[in-house]
Design goal:
Structural class: alpha/beta
Number of helices: 10
Helix content: 25-40%
Radius of gyration: 19 Å
Strand content: 25-35%
Distance between the termini: 51 Å
Length: 269
């Protein structure tokens, strides 16, 4: 790789001043449906960014673009200074090979609405699968870390349980532990509590609060306004594929400037 290519593939800022995430003018369409219409977002290392918005506003699609599960149609996304999914040559983007994209995804953990655990594997086996297969970690090392992560998410006694033996909240906590097992630099959460019974929501949010306290950089699509207010450092409100409003969560929630934000919050508060 040439020095020119390395420079083109890196975000403008560097070193200690470099944000963990930079998204510039991100567009995404599915056929004629334009889902993202120029998203700009910067998230600093150690920051928790919460994303609010109605269904169909593009929130989940944006998350999937960050780790290149969806290919953007225009714009740029950098994570920890590295352009995601593409090399840039002469101002044009050239998509990376699958192997290169997979390597980038190792640094980006993602937790989905549905838990997506392997049903034929125990909690422990679900967690060690990627470190062993992708990072080629020795099984004993991966197992020790997985047990420590299960303890961290309050499931030390469920290592040998299969997903169908766990509650929804427990499965989601295993999913979080599984993402953390890859030692990501950035964690993406796509409405991680939306599929849970109300009484199980708190146990998942507590784990996420603990991660925030430890300095994990997180982008969280959520309808949990209390979590956004308490834990978030930055909040964006999306609608119809654009960022309508952004700012400190307490300010946006207490005194939204835009009518669309006020109308949304009036329904969910």
């Amino acid at each position: 790789m040439t020095d020119a290519l390395v420079q083109a593939d890196e975000a403008p800022a560097s070193g200690a001043d470099r944000p963990m995430l930079v998204a510039e003018n991100v567009h995404k369409s599915f056929g004629r449906l334009e889902v993202l219409r120029g998203i700009d977002l910067t998230v600093k290392a150690g920051e928790v960014c919460c994303v609010l918005g109605p269904s169909g506003s593009g929130k989940s699609t944006f998350l999937r673009c960050i780790n290149h599960l969806e290919k953007i149609n225009a714009g740029r996304i950098w994570v920890d200074g590295k352009l995601i999914g593409y090399h840039e040559r002469g101002g044009k983007l050239h998509e990376m090979r699958d192997r290169e994209v997979a390597a980038q995804r190792q640094d980006i953990g993602m937790v989905f609405q549905r838990f997506n655990l392997f049903p034929h594997m125990t909690a422990l086996e679900n967690i060690i699968e990627a470190p062993c297969r992708v990072r080629r970690e020795p099984k004993a090392q991966a197992r020790a870390r997985a047990l420590a992560l299960l303890e961290r998410v309050g499931l030390a006694d469920r290592a040998d349980s299969y997903p169908n033996q766990l509650s929804g909240g427990q499965q989601q906590r295993v999913a979080i532990a599984r993402a953390l097992a890859m030692r990501p630099k950035l964690m993406l959460f796509d409405e991680p509590t939306s599929a849970l019974d109300p009484e199980l929501v708190g146990e998942v949010l507590d784990v996420m609060k603990d991660l925030a306290t430890d300095g994990m950089t997180m982008i969280v699509v959520t309808h949990e306004i209390g979590f956004a207010r308490e834990v978030g450092d930055h909040l964006i409100f999306m609608d119809e594929g654009v960022v309508v409003e952004a700012g400190p969560p307490r300010e946006v929630i207490a005194s939204p400037r835009h009518e669309r934000t006020r109308a949304f919050l009036a329904k969910v508060l």
